[in-house]
């Protein structure tokens, strides 16, 4: 956890899209690069070899940490380098980048060029800088691409560093009757599923159902609305239908379909959306699942058919995180997935879906610390940067990197840190995360990876539809998985009772 008022600056060097160093002139191929970055303050220029900057090198299952800017580590295309330094005044901090090269392992290292990063270039929470490299004759010889992440401080009266928090907050001790059980999106995925579901996903009704069934945790997807309210919804885009009614009975109504990012809707606007089952929309029959069709009066505001509270409110989509924390019994733990857009390798830019990363994390942490009370809270995200922010800003709640690894179902993620199981483990260990939340098929296909993960001292949670099968869930428990996420909590509970 960073100092209370300091800002941590992380500079990333990687080959997620292409090699970060591009030279203008031709020369020997397969050069080996040694990149040394020094922090420069306005008042004090750090001496070469100073220990104020830390280099973390991620390689399969491992992390190497080097203190200071005088090192001989060679950057490999499969590596991920992070240079970290803290400051209390970002406006006084800059960086000098010195690039050295070697033609062969046995050849001497020679200075290739130098680049500079100024404080004015570090804006927002994150970004990518293309830094010119200048040789000793002051000629531009190429560029080096560097990503940056600013970890800004976050304050709350309950956010106090505690060794007790760090030692007791995790799930490394399995339950006496096996692993912990987590319900996917509460009671299971409902939209896009072929099963008839009584409790719509990511709703208060689903979370309460998980509690009644004795599930330990409910997983939920949390995003930020336009007015900065944490809301629970899975997709980053909302598909809407705008229906225009005819001016005369002889004409037909016209429907226009469009998509809008969750971040561009206010929490109140989400509450007024009428939700219909897609397959039945054309017939105008309303929602199949209980309570999905909202009741509206002439002013398009939510109403009830009686003076009593509307019993369907628990079934409505877009509940706020605060509502879930306040209305669901505290005995049910929450696994809160921070649903930040994360780019796949072959995907176009997703910048239009993103908000400032520090703002995103701070808004969610604020509600959690205000309303969670004694409830067990686990935090997770596919985006490694969001995991770094969650881990650095607070010490109370465990943080997990969620990963799908290399599989045949989805395209790989662009970020090398989340692309494979090996790099996910290395990243989690390097940032002192509590563990990883991994696609269970990867464990079934490569059982030896479980032992490697556990040997690193990480907590292991497994997600995937296969976990609903009794034999698969039993296998995960027997192999030491600490928590199993299931999609059908009712089937899982029946199987658990039968096996007992």
TrEMBL record:
Gene3D superfamilies according to UniProt: Phosphatidylinositol (PI) phosphodiesterase
Region feature Disordered, mapped onto this chain: 159-179, 287-308
GP-PDE domain residues: 179-496
Keywords: Hydrolase
Composition bias, Basic and acidic residues: 163-178
GO annotation terms (biological process): glycerophospholipid catabolic process
InterPro entries noted in UniProt: C2_GPCPD1 (IPR057506), GDPD (IPR051578), GP_PDE_dom (IPR030395), PLC-like_Pdiesterase_TIM-brl (IPR017946)
CDD domains: GDPD_GDE5_like
A GO molecular-function descriptor: glycerophosphocholine phosphodiesterase activity
PANTHER family: GLYCEROPHOSPHOCHOLINE PHOSPHODIESTERASE GPCPD1, GLYCEROPHOSPHORYL DIESTER PHOSPHODIESTERASE
UniProt name for this protein: Glycerophosphocholine phosphodiesterase GPCPD1-like
Organism for this UniProt entry: Actinia tenebrosa
Phylogenetic classification of the source organism: Eukaryota, Metazoa, Cnidaria, Anthozoa, Hexacorallia
